[in-house]
Specification:
Length: about 280
């Protein structure tokens, strides 16, 4: 066999080997899916939690991109327009109201967390101390406002109509202390605490302000009647059965994420999906 033939054979084998590995490298890369998830801007603990979820997703062949929002109306609008593929920020009640109001087809695909409602005051040490005509700071965002009013009802300060699941200020049916409500942005509630008698502040903002959630003067016990307030992962109907969405839910609903939520987040949130470890 002459030298030219041998050289040709070697070159052919080299091309086959390179092609073989290139094909399988491309094949492996093509198996990695990308998904953009919208969440509300939070504190460092929120970032840590999603870093953990992203690591879980990577093991499943999913590259998660996180997009943060500051307005509760933005994540669903972005989902409907296709700017993001899923979001994780809202509860069942808010989603149902949103779909009705905007004629959208956003669907829940997995439960995440639930948080006990808490009332804070810089002026009073007990709910009983809230004075006649006292001022209560309340979020101007519907997703938070309804939950706060139900919290105030549980604390015995007001009563709301039993005909609505997500009440607004107009649904208050009894206000014996003639409480005055001050509507402010959700992210401003912790800042106005020194100026008001009472406020319900999201745990992430309490923690972000360097406060402890244990400083609350009232905590609403969690029970099954509050299922509508369970937070969820949501996506559009045409994406709900996609492999990427299933991988996202699996990455979130993992034991290491549940342990972080229950014991390390410092927000009082509890992992509530089916199979999540029970908080001790």
């Amino acid at each position: 066999m002459n030298k030219k033939v041998v050289t040709g054979i070697i070159a052919a084998i080299a091309l086959i080997v390179v092609g073989y590995f290139s094909f399988f490298q491309h094949s492996a890369q093509s198996k990695t899916e990308t998904l953009t998830v919208g969440i509300m801007a939070g504190d460092k603990k929120t970032d840590e939690q999603w870093k953990l979820i992203k690591e879980n997703a990577k093991k499943e062949g999913l590259d998660l991109k996180i997009k943060t929002f500051t307005d509760y109306n933005q994540p669903n609008a972005a989902l409907s327009s296709g700017d993001i593929d899923a979001n994780a920020f809202q509860h069942y009640i808010f989603l149902n109201d949103w779909n009705k109001a905007h004629k959208t087809d956003i669907v829940p695909v997995g439960e995440t967390i639930m948080v006990a409602g808490r009332l804070y005051s810089d002026k009073h040490k007990s709910i009983k101390d809230i004075p006649q005509n006292g001022t209560v700071a309340i979020s101007n965002a519907k997703i938070t406002q309804g939950r706060t009013l139900l919290l105030l009802q549980a604390a015995g300060l007001i009563k709301v109509s039993d005909k609505v699941s997500d009440p607004t200020l107009k649904d208050i049916t009894e206000n014996k202390k003639n409480l005055q409500f001050k509507e402010v942005g959700t992210d401003q509630l912790v800042r106005v605490l020194p100026e008001v008698d009472l406020a319900s502040v999201d745990p992430s903002f309490i923690v972000g302000a360097g406060r402890s959630i244990n400083s609350a003067i009232y905590v609403r016990p969690l029970d099954k009647s509050q299922h509508g307030a369970v937070n969820i992962i949501a996506t559009t109907k045409n994406k709900k059965n996609s492999s990427a969405i299933k991988k996202l839910v699996k990455a979130y609903q993992s034991k290491n994420v549940a342990d972080f939520i229950d014991y390390k987040s410092g927000t009082g949130e509890v992992a509530v999906w089916k199979g999540a470890p029970t908080v001790k």
